[in-house]
Amino acid sequence: MARNRVIYQSEALFVSPNATGFHFTGAGGAGSGNASNVTGIGGKHAPDKGNLIQQLTRVQSANYSFTINRTDVNEFGRLARLDALITESPTVSLDFNYYPIDGRNEELLKFVVDGTTNAIKNHLNDTVGSNFFIETVQEGADVADNSDGDDTKTTISLGNGFLSDYSIEASVGSIPSASVTIEGFNMKADEGTTGLKIPGVTLEDGTPITNREFSLPAGSTGDHGLAALRPGDLELQIPSDAGLIVNTSGEDSGTSFHVQSVNFSVPMSRTPIERLGSVFPYVRVPDVPLNASFTMNALVADIGTGNLAVLIDNEVKRDLKVKMKDPSDNSTTMTFEIKGALLDSESFSSDIGGNKTVDLTFSTQVGGPEDTENGVFISGSHATSIPQHP
After folding, report:
1. Average pLDDT estimate for 257-276
2. What is the DSSP letter of 144?
3. Domain boundaries in the chain?
4. Which of 181, 276, 296, 367 is deepest in the core (most CB within 10 A)?
5. Phi-psi group of 340: left, alpha or beta (phi > 0 → left; psi -120 to 50 → alpha; rest → beta)
6. Strand-pair partners of 31
7. Residue 140, Cβ neighbours under 10 Å: how many?
8. Arch. (CATH architecture) of 8-102+111-214
9. What is the distance between the alpha carbons of residues 121 and 374, in angstroms, rounded to a whole number?
10. What's the Cα-to-Cα distance from 267 to each of 25, 180, 181, 231, 366, rounded to whole Å?
11. Residue 289: is the preceding peptide bond cis (ω within 30°)?
């Protein structure tokens, strides 16, 4: 069916837990069971066979692209090139933004959200990535609860996607949001949403996987209980001596340190490792050590007492925490914590007509799976079981 345009109501973003494995559990409902191919359990759509693909909710934007890099082959005696050879795998990228609420999206993105384990543990060991799917329905129709025929829908799929950047940003006057960047190996487009070949490739040689199929589940708005969280639903837990010059002791009482924005970032750049005999890298490994950062901008009211010369010889690691709370009962829906953080910079700004502000930047290095003193820790309150998602 021809469309005049595509707008946000007609698109939805989905993710699978594994890029190369089966995309169904083979069990009734979305419960446990051995992973299975859709053709092996009967029927193409198989809504009752435990679809492992899940929808990412509260998505606000999604951008995706691929770039093909070629090497020109020239020779003496001829101006134009003889050929342009593809000597390395194409660059596939996806970045999207969503409103975090209860940790469900984070779990779908392979973060550990128990609050006690290093949140990026699974990403350190991920060797195949995840598949991402963008469903588009007919013009003027919502994806949520859509019952139109499959012949009116299309699917764009990105294969073997690895997380390369994750950040949370909250500021006065804006809804807290999360930004994600994915690097992948493949992209494909199909008509329909059921019984399609997965976009994953065999990393050793870049061969498309043809013996695995997928079907997208029905779209929805999720079961979070909240549309989104507000800036006023955040609680910052900052040590009283977090700053050197500025006084941060009044954050809870709001008397001396008035935070205007926070940014929590975990860059996870990856290096493709290649070898002779294949255009495709056989794996993308994270560049270590990994550094996470936490920045705050605040209005200055009181100045503390500190000495940079003393700090150099007596530096103290700190734990910084941001809690998101349900306004209906003040219960915590999500927590972001950076442990073992060190103060990197403290920058003041003052001018005529404006309020004096300070920017504080902290950083920490991500530790191993058993390290509970350094790194990034995330917890979420969502209670819905997500089959075979880490």
Report:
1. 89
2. B
3. 8-102+111-214, 231-380
4. 296
5. left
6. none
7. 11
8. Roll (2.30)
9. 12
10. 32, 10, 9, 24, 11
11. yes
